[in-house]
Structures are given as structure tokens and as C-alpha cells.
Amino acid sequence: MAHFDLPLDQLRSYRPDVAEPDDFDDFWGGTLEESRSLASPPVLARVDTKLRTVEAYDMTFSGFGGEPVKAWLLLPAGTSGPLPAIVEYNGYGGGRGLPHERLTWASCGYAHLFMDTRGQGSAGSAGGATADPHGSGPSVPGSMTKGILDPHDYYYRRVFTDAVLAIDAIKALDRVDPARVTVTGGSQGGGIALAAAGLVPDLVGAMPDVPFLAHFQRAVAMTDADPYNEVARYLAVHRGDDAAVFTTLSYFDVVNFSKRATAPALFSVGLMDIICPPSTVFAAANHHAVGAEVVEYAFNGHEGGQGVHWLRQSAWLADRIG
């Protein structure tokens, strides 16, 4: 895939106006208040993985509406804390998988919480374990158009709430330092991390890797690739719903969460990425309220920097956490 988006010098300064509803803060404040009022303490069960350097726990915490959400909690063996923590969110369609697939952060001395994404977890080999007990009106296969005509019903209202309450849950653990929590994730997980960074005021940092869910109106019109194309396919059938759809999506556009972030961010972008076009990533990064560094991978698509980028993340985070 050749470079297809704006020239790099324009990407680096690309800061578009993105639709933001007047009641954005009230909407999210009310959503989180309601779900927090229904939350119960997280439940942990030790898992025998045969790993010697990492302890693994099957964790269940209260998410949206008090509903149970699964996660893996991985801790460096033999530590008592308080440890710095990383909360990680998953890519589109994936599940939490198995504990031994997620060893790097715990091996570096962090408490690592990997959140299952409700209603997903059947794409690829990483299976999920969290249901989404909410129905929706007509939708295109996938998650992007579930409940898309009303922000209160929209799928990502539940996911973003789960993401925030995952942070609440890990902060409540004795072996975690609540003042040293970072969020990260790739693709969908990167978008969720940005949403969490805009909703939780005291994070150390955010590391969105090739983030999804940014600048919806540009992305939906620009790429034929899924998942954004799910929205285009929906509108191709439900003609005339454009205004309602993009009004709903404005409550979930992570550009609007970046504007509210209080922690610095390390972004990555693949300049040949047709799934999350580079301009949509830069839109979020250039609106990030407290400064963002963008690592560019000129000849990569949605895979971004992979293991090379993890080295950048680990060094960046070590500088901030110590």
C-alpha cells in the first residue's frame, strides 16, 4: 500500500474541527456515576499457569451497569508492591486470550491488567470470556453499528465505561500504586485507552498504538476497510440516518477525549495504514491536551511498529514511572 493520506508535514499539523456535543461532559459524568454506584469489589482467583516469574489471576470486576467483566491480572512473582500498573485494552474482535500470551509488562515489574472486551473475542486465536447482555436495533455484522442511533444505547458507551472501571478496580488492589497507572492498547485498544485517558484525571500516561475510533466522519468516508466500513455499509442501507449516526459517534470520537486528557501520550502511526488512516491518528494526537509524541512508521500499515514499538513504549514509560 502506497502513502495515500496527507503529506507528512501536513499530518504533523493536522488539527481538524471535530464535532463535539454540548452535553459531552454531562453524558459521560452521568454514565460513570451510575455504573460506579452499582460496582462491587473485584474478585481474583489465582491461576496455575506453570509460570515461575509471573503470577496470573483471573479477575472479574464490575463494568457498565455493574455487569461482570473479565480480565487477566499479571504480577511479577515474589513482589509485594505497591507496583506501577498498566491497564491494556484489546484490538477489534479479540479477547483476553491466555495469561502466558501477555508476559512482557509483568516481566518488567509492572502490574498488568488486560481487559476482555465485552461481546467480542471470537476473531483470531485470542478468545474472550465476557458477554454483552444488551441487544440493539438493526446493525451491520460487527460491533460498530450496535445501538448507533442513540448514544445511550451505543455499544462503545458500555466498553468505555468498562475501561474506566477497570482502572478503578486495579487501583483498589493492595499490590498496586494508584498514583502510577498507565493505559495502553493497539487499534481499538488504542482508542479505548484514549477514551480512558480523557475520563480518568490522574493517570501517568497513555500509549495508544495505531488508535482506532478517531475522527469518524473522515475515517468512514476515506477507507473501504473494516471496521469503519461497517458504518458506511449501515448508512448505505439506512439512507437518511447520517445525522443521527454521526451525532451518536461524536460522543465516542476519541479526539474529544484527547482534548480532555491530563496525562502525556505516546502515539504510533503507520503511514500506509488503510484501516486507521494516518490523518485520523494525527487528529487525536494533535488535539491531545497535555502533549503527545507520535512515532511514525513510514512503510508500515496497521501493524505499526510491533515489537520495535514496544521498545519505544517501555523506555518512554520507564522515564515517567522510574
TrEMBL record:
- Where does the Acetyl xylan esterase domain lie? 1-318
Check the record and name the InterPro entries matching this protein. AB_hydrolase_fold (IPR029058), AXE1_dom (IPR008391), CE7 (IPR039069)
Report residue spans for region: Disordered.
122-142
Top-rank lineage group of the source organism: Bacteria
What is this protein called in UniProt? Acetylxylan esterase
Organism of origin:
Agromyces tropicus
